[in-house]
């Protein structure tokens, strides 16, 4: 539980960093690499495009966490993944406010917050699993008697379940974005 709180603080620090980056460098913060596809700027895709735009960035971070867990020093990488996600959230929210002002609040509440909240929670769980397995490898490398852990297959099963949950979250996000983007951002239902 304390570990999840620590991870949440890292995510929050990234969020605040993203806000500051957007305020200081508004043009450079508009990069897809930084906002991780979380920004709702110009959402004019068909449903499959919305799904992949919602799924792929977070899947890449999940995959990164999964691979970092197989390293003796993956704990630092898990922290960096959460920091990076927080920066993306801060940039996406800030860009919405910069673009639409207070009228951007519904975009944040109904289009960004549900998906980013669910996927950030999934990444928090992934970081916890990464930390656990990586700590076991680090104890083995340093010749310390580490805690006897579960078989490695449980690690793979947990990441498989996280990926399935991410697929569901991406499907829900793409459907929600497709239905509401026209009403909230003033263009026709997510279509090109």
Describe this structure in words.
The C terminus is likely disordered. The longest helix is centred in the middle third of the chain and has 37 residues. This protein is 77% helix and 0% strand. The chain is built from six helices and no strands. It has 192 residues and is mainly alpha-helical.
Task: Label this structure with key terms.
192 residues; mainly alpha; 6 helices; 0% strand; globular; disordered C terminus
Radius of gyration: 18 Å
> How many H/I helices?
6
**The biggest beta sheet, please?**
none
Mean pLDDT: 83
Helix content: over 70%
* Low-pLDDT stretches: 187-192
- The fraction of residues in strands falls at under 5%
- Structural category is mainly alpha
The total of beta strands comes to: 0
Write the layout of secondary structure elements.
Layout: H1 2-24, H2 32-35, H3 47-68, H4 74-100, H5 105-141, H6 152-185
Helix pairs in contact: 1-4, 1-5, 3-4, 3-5, 3-6, 4-5, 5-6
Task: Summarize, please.
The protein is 77% helix and 0% strand. The protein is an all-alpha fold. Helix 3 runs antiparallel to helix 6.
């Amino acid at each position: 539980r304390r570990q999840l709180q620590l991870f949440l603080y890292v995510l929050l620090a990234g969020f605040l960093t993203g806000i500051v980056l957007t305020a200081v460098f508004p043009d450079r913060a508009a990069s897809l690499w930084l906002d991780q596809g979380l920004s709702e700027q110009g959402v004019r895709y068909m449903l499959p495009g919305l799904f992949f735009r919602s799924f792929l960035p977070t899947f890449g971070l999940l995959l990164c966490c999964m691979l970092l867990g197989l390293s003796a020093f993956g704990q630092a990488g898990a922290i960096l993944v959460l920091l990076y996600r927080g920066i993306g959230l801060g940039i996406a929210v800030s860009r919405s406010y910069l673009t639409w002002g207070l009228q951007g609040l519904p975009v944040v509440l109904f289009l960004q917050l549900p998906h980013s909240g669910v996927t950030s929670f999934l990444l928090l769980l992934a970081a916890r699993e990464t930390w656990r397995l990586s700590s076991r490898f680090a104890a083995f490398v340093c010749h310390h008697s580490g805690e006897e852990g579960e078989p490695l297959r449980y690690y793979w099963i947990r990441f498989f379940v996280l990926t399935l949950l991410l697929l569901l979250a991406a499907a829900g996000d793409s459907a929600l974005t497709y239905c509401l983007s026209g009403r909230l951002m003033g263009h026709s239902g997510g279509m090109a």
